[in-house]
């Protein structure tokens, strides 16, 4: 069985999506995001913070009962008072985070084919649990966004070094969609235009980014980015 939490929540069994009740969805998502066992009381408190402890515990028991009916194999295992996803469940978030860490680790690096790297850009572009507004997800989303920003920028630079300009530009734009104010990704996008000889596109991107910063934050791009544009336009 496979659990997908990048983008919309989906549980796949035998190649087909499984209908998962809301309570069980929240429980499985919590385990998938945390990636480790969680004490029953902590799980109940995080998933149902607006409820009394007794009501939250009852909701947890109901969610556990729902999870036992999802497939031929157990999806939640317990050890004492701790709960976790069964080892038979693969999670897309874990796999993508593992690939991102390898990419960002200079001693190891990520051994992958061009198709694998293109797929990784697509996976890193997906938000964590699209459409969910649970309070416990706020910090987890920040962690995911921070990791995928660095990974997308690293991929964009790697593609640029290989003269894969389209892939580099797509990875850089994916990073700007995660954080439109972050300069690093915009600078890489400008460098891609410059490498292709598209000076006008580079300047246009810079001007649009500068307008965004001035309109929303009342700040200007860094001196480094301004010098990059100056070098392009005076060469």
TrEMBL record:
Pfam families: BTAD
Domain Bacterial transcriptional activator: 91-233
Superkingdom to which the source organism belongs: Bacteria
Swiss-Prot/TrEMBL keywords: Two-component regulatory system
Keyword match Transmembrane helix: no
Segment forming the signal sequence: none
InterPro entries, sorted: AfsR-DnrI-RedD_regulator, BTAD, TPR-like_helical_dom_sf, WH-like_DNA-bd_sf
Gene3D superfamilies the UniProt entry points to: Tetratricopeptide repeat domain, Winged helix-like DNA-binding domain superfamily/Winged helix DNA-binding domain
Keyword Phosphoprotein: no
Protein known as: Bacterial transcriptional activator domain-containing protein
Organism: Streptomyces koelreuteriae
């Amino acid at each position: 069985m496979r659990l997908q939490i990048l983008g919309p929540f989906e549980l796949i069994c035998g190649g087909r999506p499984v209908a998962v009740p809301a309570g069980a969805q929240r429980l499985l998502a919590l385990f998938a995001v945390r990636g480790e066992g969680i004490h029953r009381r902590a799980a109940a408190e995080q998933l149902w913070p607006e409820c009394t402890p007794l009501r939250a515990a009852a909701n947890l028991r109901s969610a556990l009962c729902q999870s036992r009916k999802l497939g031929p194999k157990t999806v939640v295992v317990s050890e004492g008072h701790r709960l976790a996803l069964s080892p038979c469940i693969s999670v897309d978030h874990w796999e993508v985070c593992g690939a991102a860490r390898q990419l960002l680790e200079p001693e190891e690096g990520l051994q992958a084919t061009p198709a694998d790297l293109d797929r990784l850009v697509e996976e890193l572009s997906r938000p964590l649990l699209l459409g969910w507004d649970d309070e416990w997800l706020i910090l987890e989303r920040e962690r995911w966004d921070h990791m995928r920003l660095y990974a997308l920028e690293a991929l964009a630079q790697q593609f640029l070094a290989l003269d894969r300009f389209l892939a580099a530009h797509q990875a850089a734009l994916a990073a700007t969609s995660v954080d439109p104010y972050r300069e690093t990704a915009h600078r890489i996008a400008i460098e891609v235009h410059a490498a292709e000889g598209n000076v006008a596109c580079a300047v246009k991107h810079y001007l649009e980014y500068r307008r965004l910063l001035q309109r929303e934050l009342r700040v200007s791009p860094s001196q480094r980015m301004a010098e990059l544009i100056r070098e392009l336009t005076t060469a």
